[in-house]
Amino acid sequence: MARSRAVLAGVFLWGALLGLSGCGGAEEPGGGDPPSDSTEETQEPTDDATDETTGSGDADDPAVSAAVDDLAERLGVDTGDIEVGPLEAVTWRDGAIGCPVPDQVYTQALVEGRRLILTAEGEEYAYHGAGEDALVYCETPEEPLETDAAS
């Protein structure tokens, strides 16, 4: 009886540790603090058909502006040389938010988030985020499960 309790306790502790393994340690992409001046209203994709049909994200959105500034710095180009695509509401397959890093462990649950595609010098660059978190550059992007911008 005591042995079965010890085995049960060990299994429970192992499961708890496995569940918490994605909650700490190395920071996952998109795990940073959102911009301090962001608001829910400006972070969410709009239902405005003109934004979706032109393929252009809201340049006044702090997350979009931050991504454009980041890419301009990475490439050493002027922000005016960067074309802004749509800011899409997406569902990521897991906590990697479409930007997995080798040998990194991620939560294995669907994550609601966003994706922004920027174009500079003929090349596309992906920025991904979880929820309302800041958008982060994704060097090897994966496709999300679905997007709301196409609907």
UniProtKB/TrEMBL annotation:
Listed PROSITE patterns: PROKAR_LIPOPROTEIN
Compositional bias ranges of the Gly residues kind: 23-33
The organism's place on the tree of life at top rank: Bacteria
UniProt region (Disordered), positions on chain: 23-67
Acidic residues composition-biased segments: 38-51
Signal sequence range: 1-26
Keyword Signal: yes
Keywords: Signal
Protein name: Uncharacterized protein
Organism: Occultella gossypii
Taxonomy of the source species: Bacteria, Bacillati, Actinomycetota, Actinomycetes, Micrococcales
